[in-house]
Structures are given as C-alpha cells and as structure tokens.
Write a structure and sequence with these properties.
By secondary structure, the protein is α/β, with parallel strands linked by helices. It has helices at residues 14-31, 43-46, 51-54, 62-69, 128-140, 154-162, 173-178, 212-218, 224-239, 291-307; strands at residues 6-10, 35-39, 75-79, 91-95, 104-108, 121-124, 145-148, 168-172, 187-188, 203-208, 248-257, 260-271, 278-286. Helix content is 32%, strand content 24%. Strand 11 (248-257) and strand 12 form a beta hairpin.
C-alpha cells in the first residue's frame, strides 16, 4: 500500500501547476510516496467576470475543496491569498511552507520603473487593493496614472504591455518567481508603497481532517514563522469582514536584533480604489507562539482600523 500514489488537487493554470509541482516534489521527499497531479477547473478559472463582481472569495478554491471532501484527491495546494478566512471543519491546513517574496512588482514597457511612467500611464491590475494603494501613492507624489481593471493569466497580462495596450501591469513577485519569469520585472514595489494581499507569496497545503497520517507527514513542510505571519494577516482580513477581493493589504514581518528575532510587526491598509481615502496602521508585539496569539494580533489591528473608519472604505462588505 505504501507505494500508492498520493493525489494532489491543483488548478490548471501554468502558475498553479508550477506551485503544485514544487509541493509534489517536497511531499515525495517527506512521505517516500509518488505524487500525481489531478487537474481541477475552478469557477474563477472559467468565469470572465472581474473578481470583484463574482465575489472573489473562494472562487479559485471551492472546486478543489469539494474534490478533497469527496475523496477524489488526498491533498490540495492553494495560493494562500485565495483562501477564504473561514476554515471548514472537514479540512486542515496541514502546512504553510516558507513564504516566497510577498511583494508586488511592475512589468512596464521600456523597462520603466513605477515612478518613471509617463503622465497618464495606464496600469493594469485586477486587484482593488493594488488600485487603491497605487492611486494613493500617485496622489501624494504628484504622479498621474490610470488604473485599468484586467483579468487573465500571467501571459495575458504581460501581453497587454507587449502589445502596447497598457504601459504597465502589476503582478505578484512570488508567482513570477515560481514560473521562472522574474527577469521580466522592471520594478519591485516596496511594501512601504504597496502592502501585499494577506498571505501573498505563501502556499497552503490542505488535507481532509480525518487523514491524520498524511497531515503529520505534510506537517514537516510547515514553516512556523510564515504560518504565524499569514495567520495574523488573515485574522486582520477576517476581523474587517473583508473578502479576498476587498482593497485590504496586510503584511506581518519579523523584527530582528542581529540574529535574534525579537518581535512581529503587522501592517494593514484599506482604502477606496481611487486612493482618495486610506486607513493605514501598524502594531508590533512579541512573535506569536500559538495560533490564538497570531489571531489576536490581527484582531487588535483590525479593531484600531475600524475605529478609524476602515469599514466605510471597503465598498460592499463580504457576506
């Protein structure tokens, strides 16, 4: 029985397949069992509507979770930022491996940096979070940009720049790294300019809750610092009652004194997509040692943000 292949549920996109291939290799090492990829089409892959219109939350995840709960696959790999903050009882996040670069990046024509784009530059992104922060930065730094809603995979998005339809597009560094296209980036956006989506750059490996042996084996791939950070970020998102298509940015990072990690800082931002109103705050505390401590860090910052009017900036509240 030990040689029976483990079935890994994955989306079909080039990026999802690359991520899942990397996880499959790691799972092979820790379990000693072969892993086969099972491709699953999700609603988010087939719908041509903008994410904000189809609700965003869970559109890339539901079909994978259904396959997992139905026993069609043994485990699934998600981009953590796509996961709804509510965790179903039947499923367990067995591992959150070490996070890739969480930053957003620009791919622009003529190898331009964000701040060097011409007046009236058209920048494509499907993310209200990116729009809000880019527009806010432009307002405060005297830049004149237009953010244009787009959908599609990496090829499609970069294609808009290559074809001259757009001056630049915004993408996640992690995704480009994973498909070997990071050299096409013309500018890395500092997290001081654009805070990433909660969980950006991290992967989630999910198993059925009753599969204790597999959970234990895959648990070896877990990175405790990454898990604490993304748990705090997602707790903030949940406490703001915002879905993953809401204009919320969050990043938890570790503050070290030399080699010794001292504290965790959590930064959060929410704003209107035109960048005219923003609530941006941060909090710092001891590095969370438990799930509950990480959750508390996120809730604490969300409470402060709501007190400053964050709820009114998110458009439609998630249901």
């Amino acid at each position: 029985m030990s040689e029976k292949a483990l079935r890994l549920g994955t989306r079909r996109s080039k990026l999802a397949m690359a991520q899942s291939g990397q996880v499959a290799a790691a799972v092979r090492q820790v379990t000693g069992r072969p892993v086969e990829l099972v491709e699953i089409t999700t609603y988010g892959d087939t719908s041509r509507e903008h994410l904000a219109q189809i609700g965003g939350t869970g559109v890339f995840v539901t079909a994978l979770r259904d396959a997992l709960m139905g026993g069609e696959v043994d485990f699934a790999v998600h981009s953590l930022k796509d996961l709804p903050t509510e965790q179903p009882e039947e499923l367990v996040l067995a591992a959150v491996p070490e996070r890739e670069d969480p930053r957003d990046v620009i791919v622009a024509r003529d190898a331009l940096k964000f701040t060097d784009l011409p007046r009236g530059a058209r920048i494509g992104t499907g993310s209200p979070r990116r729009m809000a922060q880019l527009n806010a930065y432009a307002r405060t730094h005297g830049l004149d940009i237009e953010t244009v809603p787009i959908r599609g995979n990496v090829d499609t998005r970069i294609g808009y720049v290559r074809d001259g339809e757009l001056d630049a597009v915004v993408l996640a560094a992690a995704g480009l790294n994973r498909i070997g296209r990071i050299d096409e980036v013309t500018d890395f956006l500092s997290v001081d300019t654009v805070l990433p989506a909660p969980g950006q750059g991290a992967l989630a490996i999910e198993c059925a809750a009753d599969n204790a042996d597999l959970i234990a084996a895959i648990g070896e791939l877990d990175d405790p610092f990454t898990r604490a950070a993304v748990t705090a970020e997602r707790s903030l998102l949940a406490a703001l009652e915002a879905g993953c298509s809401a204009p919320v940015g969050a990043l938890a990072d570790l503050l070290a004194d030399g080699q010794i990690v001292k504290e965790m800082r959590l930064r959060g931002v929410v704003g209107t997509t035109d960048g005219s109103r923003m609530v941006q705050l941060s909090t710092t505390g001891p590095v969370p040692q438990t799930h509950d401590q990480a959750m508390a860090l996120g809730r604490e910052l969300a409470t402060e943000m709501l007190a400053r009017g964050a709820a009114g900036l998110m458009g439609e509240r998630a249901h």
